[in-house]
């Protein structure tokens, strides 16, 4: 496939490697210094675009990909408040978009097991639930998109929680969460690719369920596989649609 990379930072550069290893051609690379190249005409040279840009730029990138009718894989996080609006626009304009807070196989297995675990824990209110995420210090958004997906998976089944709140540690303010709130604690530590933990804690014990990314390789490979999966499809998808265990 011919691939347009929207965002050529930490993720864009490793995606390029995985795409070329899988015999795909990179036909466009966009970062802040090449925004003049981000045109409908140039996008139409691609079979698919892959966006790993920024929370501030992703919406305009989605818009121009819809205008160009180019299928789009969105890995960028920090825009999920606009998700329904984007889904409506995608379907209304007969476009194709697949988004995912995390494209690694391991995290998608984690997402599935997390939902099952929340169902198991629902009858045991003596266990309080919490999510913790750790990322590198260059991360712009908090909480991570992955942590939001995890939290939403818990809120689906844990009746004692009905919303999540975020506490970005070391930013001074400490969010005191109410019993009905699921706390997502975010830590920023240099060079951490992404670590996510679900903790069920009681007076007598603690259950921890953890995923640790060793590098960005799993995210990048998953994004390229998602672009391959999207070929020939029309409509609005999430990364979870790719995995048989979710269907
Ligand atoms: N879904 C998943 O599996 C994963 C998602 N992510 C998400 O992907 C995003 C990017 O992460 P990461 O690569 O580490 O971030 P980086 O900051 O390393 O890269 C972001 C890139 O976007 C570029 N950029 C800035 N503005 C625009 C624009 N208007 N159009 C296109 N590109 C632009 C930046 O350009 P410049 O360098 O010139 O500023 C930079 O090249 C984040 O939201 C992160 O949360 C990350 C890993 C996995
Ligand atoms: O910014 C990152 O690096 C990552 N962001 C994604 C997220 O916000 O969940 C995915 C991964 O954890 C790495």
Automatic annotation (TrEMBL):
Pathway stated in the Swiss-Prot or TrEMBL entry: Amino-acid biosynthesis; L-lysine biosynthesis via DAP pathway; (S)-tetrahydrodipicolinate from L-aspartate: step 4/4
All residue ranges annotated as the Dihydrodipicolinate reductase C-terminal domain in the record: 106-242
EC number from the UniProt entry: 1.17.1.8
One cellular component (GO) term of this entry: cytosol
Record's subcellular location: Cytoplasm
Quaternary organization: Homotetramer.
Protein family per UniProt: Belongs to the DapB family.
Protein name: 4-hydroxy-tetrahydrodipicolinate reductase
Organism of origin: Arcticibacter pallidicorallinus
């Amino acid at each position: 496939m011919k691939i347009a990379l929207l965002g050529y930072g930490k993720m864009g550069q490793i995606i390029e490697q995985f795409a070329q290893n899988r015999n795909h051609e990179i036909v466009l690379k966009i970062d802040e210094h090449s925004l003049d190249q981000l045109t409908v005409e140039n996008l139409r040279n691609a079979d698919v675009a892959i966006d790993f840009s920024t929370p501030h730029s992703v919406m305009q990138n989605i818009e121009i990909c819809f205008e160009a009718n180019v299928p789009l894989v969105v890995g960028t996080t920090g825009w999920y408040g606009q998700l329904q609006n984007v889904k409506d626009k995608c379907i209304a304009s007969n476009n194709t978009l697949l988004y995912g807070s995390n494209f690694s196989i391991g995290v998608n297995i984690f997402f599935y097991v997390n939902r099952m675990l929340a169902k198991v824990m629902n009858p045991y209110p003596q266990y309080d639930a919490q999510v913790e995420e750790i990322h590198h210090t260059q991360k712009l958004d908090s909480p991570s998109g992955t942590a939001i997906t995890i939290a939403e998976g818990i809120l689906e089944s844990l009746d004692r929680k009905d919303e999540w709140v975020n506490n970005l540690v070391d930013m001074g303010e400490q969010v005191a969460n109410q019993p009905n709130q699921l706390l997502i604690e975010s830590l920023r530590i240099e060079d951490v690719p992404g670590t996510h933990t679900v903790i069920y804690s009681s007076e007598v014990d603690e259950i921890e369920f953890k995923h640790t990314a060793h590098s960005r390789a799993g995210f990048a490979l998953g994004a390229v596989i998602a672009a391959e999966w999207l070929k020939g499809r029309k409509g609005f998808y999430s990364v979870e649609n790719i995995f048989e265990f979710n269907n």
